[in-house]
Specification:
Length: about 100
Amino acid sequence: MFDDEYDYCWLVDIGDYARVSDALLDDIKVKGLTTPGHCPSCVIYCIGDYIFTGDSYLPGVKVVTKLPKGNKKQAFESIEKILHLAEDKTKCPGHGEMAK
């Protein structure tokens, strides 16, 4: 599901991007990655064939970066990462319908 180019650690800030490590919840494997841009604390979670993107990715909607510490460049980079990771996954945004 994940390329080796992405490192993960549990919500620890390591510069511009923090990574989120594997977690196991009652035999459900969860992976995640911080996706700053909308705000610095945005995180996506990957569970099986689903990616829960919150406000980091809303299909057909430009990411709002007007919040304090919002960043257009980071939002663009985060969306690229999300789309790369979600090529054959179902994207579950924070608003709107799920999309394949």
